[in-house]
Amino acid sequence: QVQLVESGGGLVQAGDSLRLSCAASGRTFSSFSSYFMAWFRQAPGKERFFVARISGSGGASDYVDSVKGRFTISRDNAESTAYLQMNNLKPEDTAVYYCAADSRYWGRSGMYRTDSYKYWGQGTQVTVSS
Prior knowledge:
The model has no long low-confidence stretch (mean pLDDT 95). Helices cover 3% and strands 48% of the residues. By secondary structure, it is mainly β.
């Protein structure tokens, strides 16, 4: 069974930090380093939007402009886990955060698309109060 399980969400105040985790399990992820890992978020009533992506080795990452300088995506391939460190959180960061994985490289244009990722977690809620 293939699973991506997010954790680490919660209710925080503006300016606080959170670290989200995404643990991968299952035979598909036996070669975890073969997968691009990404984070998306979805606010109530809105579409799911790209936040960040990291390469299989962890050597390359991309971010949406609104989180650059505040969020950091990372991964521990030995633990089959990806992370999203979120600092200086703002109320507009409030959303359900999803991790996603895919072994294919779609390029910079493709990484923003939800259909570029085959595997998804169930999401974790992040709420930032002002």
